[in-house]
Amino acid sequence: MKEHVPVMQAEVLEALRPWDEIRLVVDATLGLGGHSLEILKSCCGARLIGFDQDPQAREIAGQRLSGYESRFDIVADNFRNIGELALRKAWQGADAVLFDLGVSNLQITEAERGFSFQENGPLDMRMEGGEESRNTLTAGLILNEWSIKELTDIFRKYGEDPFAYQIARGIVRNRENGGELATTGDLVALIRKILPAPVQRKMGGHPARKVFQALRIAVNDEAGALDEALDGAVKITAEGGRIIVISYHSLEDRMVKKRFRQWSETGLGEARPRKAMIPAKEEIVANYKSRSAKMRVFRVAR
Description:
Elements: H1 9-15, E1 24-27, H2 34-42, E2 47-51, H3 55-64, E3 72-75, E4 94-100, H4 105-109, H5 139-145, H6 148-157, H7 164-176, H8 184-194, H9 197-202, H10 209-219, H11 222-236, E5 237-247, H12 250-265, E6 269-271, H13 281-286, E7 294-300
Parallel strand pairs: 1-2, 1-4, 2-3, 4-5
Antiparallel strand pairs: 5-7, 6-7
Helix pairs in contact: 6-7, 6-10, 11-12
């Protein structure tokens, strides 16, 4: 079974207290089931509904949660559709809705998925994965067909890359000169060629990291999906329930912060605590992936 360390697990469980009052939790980003497993262990009277569009992740999560088979259901769908739960017969609302917006280890570590800038693989990046995916947009299609303006826009908006235009221009010029990007290794090599060595040394991280992030968000319409999912979350959460969101980059966190503020202004509840929480130093040392995480909690008042 794949290694999976849930980020800010202690803070998530603390936000669910008192555990004996939790009856239903919706894990909008089930992934490999790490958060869900700890919730089922701690909230002994709770049922859980988990959403994930990745069939391999659903299979692994099902195995991980198998000891609680009568208390969880897995929905094979994008989390943008969680609002449809409100249409279920006798739906009374969830006591908590959890979003962990990070990319799972399953997607990062398997080169054939195309998410990793450290492993060579096809330029795919579809969350559903595989040839049966309903999504026909891939990272390769974007890189080999989109214009300089279109590439610059997504690199700036979704990757917040200060070198968005230079990278986009270099990609299109490479294409015009007969070059084709077929693998993640091709893309990394081209970005290293485009950006001067002194610039790369000052970046404080891998020079392709922000471009890969931007492509992943664009391929899967992650910003649009999160926008719809937040709308859905507030519809399905019961009075007194919580909406818990863990994000990993500023674009997501700004979206969540803005939505929580809008909800507060219309009397739907309040963010509690008001500011985002971050991982403890001990967690960052033990799990480097958690270093950029921010967690926000909204309490629904209705």
